[in-house]
Amino acid sequence: QGFTLKHWAHPFSKSDLTTALQHSLVVAAFTVVIATALGTFMALALVRYGFRGKATTELFVFLPLATPEVVLGAALLGLFLTLHVATGMVTIFIAHVMFTVSYVVVTVRARLEGMDRHIEEAAMDLGATEWTTFRKVTLPMIAPGVAAAAMLAAALSIDDYVITSFNAGQTQTFPLFIFGATRQGVPAEVNVLATMLLIVVLGLMGLNVLVQRALARRDRARAE
Description:
With 224 residues, this protein is mostly helical. The protein is 78% helix and 0% strand. It has helices spanning 15-48, 54-66, 69-82, 89-113, 118-125, 130-159, 162-167, 174-181, 188-223. The longest helix has 36 residues, at 188-223. The mean pLDDT is 87.
C-alpha cells in the first residue's frame, strides 16, 4: 500500500520465480554465444565476399525480422513436432538462436560496411594471414558492434514471450512466469528481479560506452 524496500531483502524467496529467471538467463547466455558467433561470421561473409545464392541468403537473414512472432513460433513448433523433438529448454534455445541471429547480422554488418578495408589489406601485405588479420585487426575494430549485437541478443532472448510460449513445453521462463502470475496477482518479487535486470543492462551499456570512448582516445593519441 506504500513505498517499501522489504521485498529486496529476500528477492529469491519464491522458488518457481527464481527457477524461471534461471532458465531465462541460461537460455540467454547460450543464445548470445551461438547467435553472436554465427551472426558475426555471416555478416563477414555477406559484406566481404560474393558467392552464388548471396541474395537468397540475405532474404533468409531479413525474413525473421519481418515475420510476425506468432508465425515464427507456430512454424517452429510444427517443425519440432514433425521431427518428434520434445519441447523444453533445447527447443527454446534453438528458437531464440534462430530469431536473434538476424539482429546480430544486421548490427555487425552495419559496423563492417563503415570500416576501412585498406587496414586489413595493409596487414596482409605485411605478412599476416587471414586468420591473424581477423583476430588482430578486424575483430578489434568491429568489437563495439559485436558487443552491441550480443547485448541486443541477450535482451531479446530474456524478453521474448510469444515464440517461447509455443516452444517451451513444461519449461517456464521469466516472461512466461509473469504472464501466468497475472491471473492470480504478480508477486512483488517480480518487480525486484526485473529492476535488477534493468540495472545490470544499464550498467553494461554504460561500460560499453566507456570502453568505446577509452579506445577512441587511445586511437587519437596514437594518431597524434
